[in-house]
Protein 1
Amino acid sequence: MNTEGNLKKEEITSSKSTQYRNFPMVPRVVFGQGSFSQLGDILLSNRKSSEAPFIFLVDDFFENEEFANRLPIMFNDELIFISANEEPKTGQVDALVTRIKEKYEELPSGIIGIGGGTLLDLAKAVAILLNNNGQAEQYQGWDLVNRPAIYHVGIPTISGTGAEVSRTTVLLGPEKKLGINSDFTTYDQVILDPDLTKTVPIEQWFYTGMDCFIHCIESLNGTYLNAFSQSYGEKALELCKEVFLEDLPEDESRDKLMMASWHGGMSIAYSQVGIAHAVSYGLSYLLGIKHGIGNCLVFQHLGEFYPEGVQLFQKMMAKHDIELPQGVCSNLTQNDFDIMVNVALGMDALWENALGKEWKKIMPPERLQAIYQRI
Ligand code: NAD
Ligand code: ZN
C-alpha cells in the first residue's frame, strides 16, 4: 500500500546504485487571487471540437447559480456537482466514466476538477479511465496506467493535501485504499486561486492544513529525506508556521497556505509520508474517518516519534481553539483493532521512512494497537 508519498522502499534502497525516478510535474500553473477567471481562456485553446465537451466535476458546496455562472461553459460542456462527504471510490470513478462515455460520441476535451482533495482525486481518476480500458481498481498501484489521461485541470478550493501537484489519486476500492500512481495522473494544468478558499469553515481549514503540516514533519524527519524533498518541505513548514501560529491578514494567510500545500506535495513527491499517515489509513479504512482529521487524531499521540512537530501541532490547536473528538476507538473490538493494525502495518515504505529498516522491531502490532487505543 502507499499513500500520497511517492517513493517505494526499493527505490530508496537502490537509488545510489541504480536509477533515480523520473517524476512528472504539473507543466502549467497559474497562481493569484481571482485567477479562476482565466479558466475560460485556458480551456479555449484546449478544446478539441464543439462536439468534445469539457466536463466540470465540482464539489457540491459550490452548487449555486452564482458559481455556475462563473464557469466558462460552452457547447455541450457538462457540469456535475459531487459530494465530498465521503472519500472517492473506485466504483464512483467507474460510474462517472460510463456515464460520460455513454452520453458523448467523442471523448471529452478535458476534465476540470474543482474542490478539495476529494474532487481533485476524482477528476484525475476519471481523466485516466476515460482513456484506459477496464475499471479503476485495476489501476490502483504503481505505474499500471498505459495510456495518457485525457487533458485535466485541477482547481483546489481548500489548501493542504497537495493533491494538486501529486502523481497519485487515492481511491477506496473494494479491497483496498490505494492510489493510482502513474506519470499520467498529474494534472496538465492547475489554477491556484486563494480566493476560492475563502468559505472553508475553520475546522476543515485546520484539518486539511494540518495534512500539509504533517506531510512536512513526516518528510523532513524521514530516513528517505533528500535535498529535493528537504528544500520543498522546509519552505512548506515555514509557511505553515506563519499561517497557523502568526496573525497574518486573511488574504495573505490564504495565499501562503495554498503555496504551503503545493510545496508540501512536492516534498513528499520525492520521499514518503510517515507514521501519522499509516495509522490514519487504518482509521479511514475501518471507520471512514477522513484524511485530514484522521491525521490530526493520530498525530497528537506521536510525541515520542515527532517531538517538535507534535509540540507545534498542539500550539496550533490551542491558538485556533480546535478540539478533536475523543474516544473514537473506545468501543472497538479486538477484531477491529486487528484490521486497523494490519492496514497500517501493510504500508512498509511509510514505516521504513519513519523508523528505518528495523521498523518492524520498533513497531510491533501491540505497540501500534496501544496508539489506536489512545485515539
Ligand atoms: P475534501 O475534498 O474531502 O473536502 C472537505 C470538506 O470541505 C467537504 O465538505 C467539502 O465540501 C468542503 N469544501 C471544500 N472546499 C470548500 C470551500 N471552498 N468552502 C467550503 N467548503 C469547502 O478535503 P481535503 O482535505 O482537501 O481532501 C481529502 C481527500 O484528499 C482525501 O480523500 C484524501 O485521500 C485525499 N488526498 C489526496 C492526496 C493526493 O496526493 N492525491 C494527498 C492527500 C490527501
Ligand atoms: Zn496526507
Protein 2
Amino acid sequence: MKMTCKIRLDEFMAGLVRRNPGETEFHQAVYEVAKDVLPFVESRPIYCENRILERMTEPDRIIIFRVSWEDDDGNIRANRGYRVQFNNSIGPYKGGLRFDKGLTLSILKFLGFEQTFKNSLTGLPLGGAKGGADFNPKGKSEHEIMRFCQSFMNELFRHIGPNTDIPAGDIGVGAREVSYMFGQYKRLTNTVTGTITGKGLAFGGSMIRTEATGYGLVYLADNILKQHKNGLEGKTALVSGSGNVAQYTIEKLIDSGVKVLTASDSSGFVYDKDGIDKEKLALIKQLKNVERKRISEYTKTFKAEYHEGQKPWKVPSQLAFPCATQNEILELDAKALADNGCLAVAEGANMPVSNEGIDIFEKAGILFAPAKAANAGGVAVSGLEMTQNSMRLSWTRKQIDSRLKNIMKHIHDQCVEHGQNGNVINYRKGANIAGFIKVADAMISFGNC
Ligand code: NDP
C-alpha cells in the first residue's frame, strides 16, 4: 500500500517527543529543521515515501561509557562519556567532543543532528556526530585533565578511526585536551592517523583550525551583508563568550573594521564602549587560554563595565554574534536586540537562539544566519586537516584561508538558492533544505535499511 505523502508537523513532533522523552534540546533542534523540511518533502514524494526525515532524526548509534580517573588527592572519580554517531551517509562521522558538567544525551543528540546538516552544507564528505563527557574541567589541575582525557580515550578509541569517526574539540575541549586524547589514541592503536582534528601543528594539525570557526562566521556575515548591499565596516557588534569561537570572531571583526563592544563568560559580560582592540583581545586570550581566569579580570587592566550574571543583548548594537552556548538568546533577549535596531545576528555557538527568538528576528526583518551555516568554518577546516593528513601534506595559512572563504561563500550561495521567499532570503530555511537534500539523496541511494 502506498503511504500518504503528507506528514503533519505536530504529528511528526508528537512521535519524536514520545520516542525521546524529556530531551528538550533535541526536540528544539528537530522542530527548527522539520518546520522547513516537511513542507519541502511534501513536494518531493521520494523523500516522503522513504520517510527520510523520520530516519534522519534517529541516530545511527549511541555509545555511553564509564570514565574512571584519579584526582590529585588519590580519590577515584567516575564520569559518563558519550559518542552519538548520528549519520554517516555522506562520509565518516565527524563532530566535536564537549566536556561540561551539565552535558546530557539530549544536548549531544541535538548537536549530532545539527552537525549532520552542517557537514553536508560544507560540501565535504563528512557525516555527523558529537560526543563528550559530564566532566567539569574548571579548576582541575593539568595532571587531572591529562588523566581524564587518557581514561576517556581508553574506551572511545575502539569506536573511532580515520575512516570511521573523527572527533574534534568543542566547549571545554581545546588544543590541550585534543593533544592528550590524540596521544592516548596513538599509544593504544600504534598508528599515527588523522583520527582527531584540531591537533597541534607539529603533529598533523592544520593552519587556521583554531581560528576557523570565528573567521568563517565573520566571512559568512560579510557575504550576507554584501548580498543585502551593506557591509561590516563601521558597524558595532556584540559578541558573547570568550572561548575559541568568540576570540577569533572578535579578531576577524576587528580586522574587518567592526567595533566590538562586549565579551562574556558564564559569570557575566564586559562592555567596553571604546571597543575591544587587538591589545585588549590579547588580554582576553591570556586570561582565558593561559591563566584560565574570569572575564571580569578584563576591567583590572582596561576601562569597561562589568555586568555580573547578565548577558550582553541589551546593549544597543547593529550586529550580534552569540558565541557561547545553546539558548543564550531567549525571547526577551531577541526582543531587546530588535528594539535596539539590530540588523543581523549570526550564530557562532550551536543553537544559541531559541525558536521563539528566531521568530522575533524574522518578524523584525533582522538577517539571521543559523549555526549550521554560520559556524561551519570549524568543521570545514577540520575536513581540510583530514585531507592533509591523508595526503601527508601541509598547506599554508594562505591556502587554507582562501579555501575557508570559498567554502563559506558556497554555504551562503546554497542558503540563497534554497531560502528565497519572494524578495526575502530566509537563511534558516535555505540552510535546512540545502543540508537535508544531500544526506537524503545519499540515504535513498543506499536503499531502505
Ligand atoms: P570554549 O570552551 O572555548 O568557550 C565557551 C565559552 O562559552 C566560554 O567563554 C564559556 O564561559 C562560555 N559559556 C559556556 N557555557 C556558558 C553558559 N551556560 N552561559 C554563558 N556562557 C557560557 O568553547 P568554543 O568557543 O569552542 O564553543 C562555543 C560554542 O561554539 C559552542 O556552542 C560550540 O558547540 C560551538 N562551536 C564550536 C566550534 C569550534 O570549532 N570550537 C565549531 C562550531 C561550533 P566559561 O569560561 O565561564 O565556561
Protein 3
Amino acid sequence: MSKLPEGFLWGGAVAAHQFEGGWQQGGKGVSIADVMTAGSNTEPREITDGVLPGKNYPNHEAIDFYDHYKDDVKLFHELGLKCFRTSIAWTRIFPNGDEDEPNEAGLKFYDDLFDELHKYNIEPVITLSHFEMPYHLVKEYGGWRNRKLIDFFTKFATTVFKRYKDKVKYWMTFNEINNQTSMFNKWSVFTNSGLLAKPGEDLERAMFQASHYEVVASALAVQIGHKINPDFKIGAMFSNGPAYPLSPDPRNMMKSERTMQAAQWYADVQCKGKYPNWLKQYFARKHFDLDITLEDLDVLKAGTVDYIGFSYYASHAVQAVKDEADDYMTRAKDSEVQNPTLKASDWGWLIDPIGLRYALNWYSDRYDKPLFIVENGLGAFDKLEDGKIHDDYRISYLREHIKQMELAVNVDGVDLMGYTPWGFIDLVSAGTGQMDKRYGMIYVDKNDAGKGTMKRMKKDSFNWYQKVIASNGADLD
Ligand code: P53
C-alpha cells in the first residue's frame, strides 16, 4: 500500500557550488564559495581576500558535475528520482553580478541540464541563491548591506524565470535564509549575505539590514515569477533545527520559544508578509534604525511564498542562562546544551527523527502552507570495501526520518509536497569544506586532500532508496 499521495516528489538535493566545479568554465565568475578554503571538523573554513595561490579551495573543482552531468543524471534516473533539487550558480549567469547582459554560456549550461532531466521525467527544483553570490558584489557593494543588491538579484531572477519558464516549475529564493540570525557567526553571515564586518561596524545590525533587503528581494521575485508564469510554485527555504527546553523549568521553555522565534522570524515575513511584533520591538530597543520603508512593507505583503521548503538535520537543546539579558536573538554559547536522550553524528549533530515530525507540525500549524523537505541526511565517514560501501547507518537514519515524515502526513494531516535528501551524491560540505563528510547514496572517489579518480559508485543506500521511491514510501526495509 502506498504511503504517500500520488505525485509525491521523491528526489535528491545538492547546490551548484558544492558539486558543479568548473569554477572558471563557461565564463563563470568568482562566487563567495570560491574564496572559502577547506576546513575540518575542528578547524573552521577560512574566508580569503580573493582567490590566493597555494590555498585549497574545495568548491573550485568539487565533484565536477559540470563535465559529468549526462552520466550523473543517468544515475539519478536509475535511482528513480522524481525531482532533483539544485541551484543556479548566479555567477554563471551574471559573473560579476552587475552586468547589463547575462552570460549566454551559463544560461546554456542549465538549458542542457534541464533538458537532460526532462528526458528522464525528473522535475527540477531550483534554488536561486544558495550560498554562492558573486564575490564582486561583496567587494564592490558590500554584499547585501547595500540596497542595490535587490536590483541585481531581481534582474538575475527575472532572467532565469524567463529563460526557463517552460522547464522549471518549482523554485526557492534564498537557501536557509535564517542561518545568519540563528547561528549568527562570521561564516553564516558571509555565506548568506556576503558580509564581512567592517571596522567599528555592528555586524548584527548589518545582518538585519541585509536580511531585510533579502526578504524584499525574495518578495519581489515571487511577484515577478508569478507574472512570468502563473503556474510557478515559488517557495522560501529555512533551516529548522528545533530548540527543545532542556528541562520543564519555565525559564528553559521561554528560552526554547525565544530561540525558535529568532530562528524562524523569516517565516513570519515570507509567509505572513509582515515582521513579528517582538522583532520590531527588538530593532527599536537596539536602536538599529534600519532602512525599512513603507513601500518595502507593501512589497512583503504582496510577495508571500507559495510553499515552505526547509532543511532538517538535527534538533538542539537549550537552557536559560543565569542573568541573561532579555534578549531574543543571541544563541549564547552556554545556552546550547547536550541532549542526554539523543545520540550524535561524527560531527556532533544530534540524530532525532521525531524532531522532523515536530518541525513539520510546527510549520503546518503556524503558516498553513504546503511544505517541502528539501534537505535531510546524515554526514558520515564511509569505508570503501572491495568496491562497496555498506552504509547501513545512513539507511537507518533515512528510514527513521521517512517513518516520521509519513506519520506527519498520514496521522497529522500535514500537506507535504516532497522529500529530497541532501547530498545524495557525495559533495563538498558547506560547513567544513570537507569531501569526507559524506551524505551520498552515490559515492564519489575523492577525498579531503582533493585526490581520487572522481569515479561514481552506488552505496547500499542507493539500492535501498530506489525501493523506497518505487514503492512510494511503503517499502522501507
Ligand atoms: P554541511 C548549518 C546548519 C544546518 C545546515 O551541512 C547547514 C548549515 C551550513 O553549513 O547547511 C545546509 O555541509 C545547507 C547545505 C549544506 C547542508 O546543510 O555543513 O543548505 O548547503 O551542505 C549540510 O554538513
